[in-house]
Amino acid sequence: MPAPDLVNTELTLTGRITTASNTTFLGSIGDVMVVYKPIAGESPLWDFPHGTLAHREVAAYLVSQAFGWDVVPRTWLRDGPMGEGMVQLWQEQDHAQSAVDLVATDRVPETGWKHVLEGRDENGRMVALIHEDSPALRRMAVFDIIVNNADRKGDHILAMTDGHRHGVDHGLTFHPAHKLRTVLWGWLGDALTSEERDGIDRVSEGLNGGLGRNLADLLSAEEIAALAARCARLRLAGRFPAPRGEMPAVPWPLF
């Protein structure tokens, strides 16, 4: 059976994700499962222009493609039962894996994990926020710096069975002001690898060509200029940055 036309074939709603802060549905296009976020269901925010989150999600996918790392599942704009919105291919994650976790401070693994911060849980016990130390998650951290992700929660990282890590929920990205809020701070100060530097270079080059033209339909000129500046700044620094500014360095809640 041929694959359905993902833009023009009818999108049928099959359920709703009630934990999402914006209206989010599960759906299907033929036999393809998708996530659908209509623009009409976006909640107003004080710091992002209203009605732009779906466009930012698609822009994040395009930048992910330019990196060549498949961080963001295929994402596109199309019409749906509640009007135009963002549609993304559904990913069946492996719930037996956790790329990010909260553990008791005396249970932090000695190898394979990065320690981010410590605090107390609702019962007053000391816990540590940790994430795995893997190339896939490092690539996601680089991606987040470049797109200025203001909301990289632990549950926005999908652990796939084959070891790949997908990032989802990229509506709060590409703000021209520094907004980086993430649980992935474990490589602070570490030098970028040659693969990571090459990925940044691909994005920078793309901004002068097809990527830049495609983003012009989704982001403002100021936002694209800030994206280019972040690429140049990170490439020059050559290492993972530290938190800066007055904004919290991690999102809340963490998951």
Query: Which secondary-structure class do the elements indicate?
Result: alpha+beta
Radius of gyration: 18 Å
Average pLDDT reading: 96
Give the terminus-to-terminus CA distance.
Answer: 39 Å
SSE pattern: EEEHEEEEEHEEHHH
Domain module tally? 2
Query: How do the strands line up in the largest sheet?
Result: 1-2-3-5-4
Range of helix content: 25-40%
Helical region count? 5
What does this structure look like?
With 255 residues, this protein is α+β, with helices and mostly antiparallel strands. The protein has two domains: 11-95 and 134-237, no CATH class; 100-131, no CATH class. It is 25% helix and 21% strand. It contains five helices and ten strands. It has helices at residues 53-67, 135-147, 194-207, 210-215, 221-237, and strands at 11-16, 25-29, 32-38, 75-78, 85-89, 100-104, 113-120, 126-132, 157-159, 165-167. The strands form three sheets. A five-stranded antiparallel β-sheet has the order 1-2-3-5-4, covered by helices on one side. A hairpin with a 2-residue loop joins strand 2 (25-29) and strand 3. The longest helix has 17 residues, at 221-237. The protein is globular, with a radius of gyration of 18 Å. It starts with 10 loop residues before the first strand and ends in an 18-residue tail after the last helix.
